[in-house]
Design a protein that fits this description.
The structure is a homodimer of 230-residue chains. With 230 residues, the first copy, chain A, is α+β, with helices and mostly antiparallel strands. In chain A, 40% of the residues lie in helices and 23% in strands. Chain A binds a DNA duplex (30 and 30 nucleotides) through residues 149-151, 178-180, 188-195, 197-198, 211, 227-230.
DNA sequence: CGCGGCATTGACTCATTTCAAAGGTGGTGG
DNA sequence: CCACCACCTTTGAAATGAGTCAATGCCGCG
């Protein structure tokens, strides 16, 4: 992790362009066309209704969310380092994409050349279908999480989902998002998220070193129903 | 709507093959490769873990669902007449697709020729990306529904979603699914679904001619929060 | 040093689950 | 053709889980 405040922006751009060239990703043939932008926490990466380029998240995390008529926010998808977005062009997009982490670095590829490339290079097209397929499967997993009954269940399966996505060994996680974001992701209140985590901790299912650092102790307990919370 | 019991199966197959040739759909160039099968209510169209062909739902409705460890079922997606499924090959698929309506008629296309066609014909590839994109957007809409707080809100937006999908004018719906399926789709109990519908009816938001026939009277009331239910 | 956002916990209200029962419907088989 | 049966639907009553309001402590940042 780099402290961006200490470094001029040009340095960052160069650093991330080099990083981009080293990380394997489906659009690497077009990296010379990519423009790299850094976003601070809370900044809009893509506004609602704005026609979007294809994007690759080099570093950081972002949320795809919509605001409901009653003012509540629903996070529809969580984008982590290495994820692509903007691939499926639902014009106009009815949701907003914002940076969650302190700094989210995005490589964006102009739409035109990629669409053309996709028509001529079956390998690229296949790779992008894989990305879309992965996004679809991620949506289905989120639906499974949201469909659970108790809040402890939801938080438990959220932790398992995060563990599968952000860690190598799958037992220690550093959450990229706040309790508020977890709440908006799971469709429950912030207090309920906090209580569910405390409950899981007390039961010995997880270990909370600090609010953002979670270790999974008993996987099974996270999958269980988790009643008698309070 | 046709009464199948009165007709021999061969007639049905011929009828649906003709219907298939007349309805515009992305795979029509390969209709001679398609095999048409009819499924009774509750029958598995695609088992969990089974490698799947690409399918087009000629008639009827189906559900994509998974069974949780606690025995509860979550419906991940609702497939209606004219929908495609099995496009994104997440092998092995972790969910089951079953017929909901009395008779669901499916045209299934072998995977190999289609994958080849997709690499050579950009128009087909584009069409299929559109289908996948639509599925993705449907998943996001379902997440928005599931993320709502009160059950009445969920049922209300479910009705609006159904109205947008199954009707032309958008005000009268014939539900293709039972209360149990709605409950498993929304992640609430059957009784709560029934109560929410009664509540919406009493408030004058909808009109229930019979359990499956809903007319939308006040759209706004369906989007509202809908507290004080009981 | 103070401020604002984040996190945790308590108390209270109430919506939803759960358990229970009754009426309705359509399909199947006699 | 009719009756039975399984499933669907609705409503009631009780228990409990989650939302809401409120207060406190924590941490990082300016």
């Amino acid at each position: 992790v780099i402290n961006f405040k200490r470094r001029p922006r040009t340095y960052c751009a160069a650093y991330y362009r080099e990083l981009l060239s080293k990380v394997p990703h489906p659009l690497e043939n077009l990296d010379n066309l990519a423009s790299i932008t850094s976003f601070r926490r809370g900044q809009e990466i893509r506004e609602r209704g704005q026609a979007a380029d294809w994007c690759f998240l080099i570093s950081g995390a972002a949320r795809r969310s919509t605001i409901r008529s009653d003012g509540r926010r629903q996070i529809v998808d969580l984008l982590l380092t290495g994820d692509c977005f903007g691939i499926t062009s639902s014009d106009p997009p009815e949701d907003t994409i914002e940076a969650i982490s302190q700094d989210a670095v995005v490589a964006s590829y102009p739409r035109q050349p990629i669409e053309e490339l996709m028509d001529t290079d079956p390998r690229i097209a296949h790779e992008l279908r894989k990305i879309t397929s992965e996004a679809l499967s991620r949506m289905r997993r989120q639906i499974l999480i949201l469909g659970r009954i108790t809040a402890t269940e939801k938080v438990g399966s959220f932790i398992l989902e995060m563990a599968a996505r952000v860690t190598k060994d799958g037992n220690a996680i550093i959450l990229p998002i706040s309790r508020y974001d977890i709440a908006d992701y799971l469709g429950v209140s912030v207090e309920t998220v906090s209580r569910a985590l405390s409950d899981l901790k007390q039961r010995g299912a997880i270990c909370l070193r600090d609010p953002r650092t979670i270790s999974i102790v008993h996987r099974r307990a996270l999958e269980e129903r988790g009643r008698n919370l309070g």
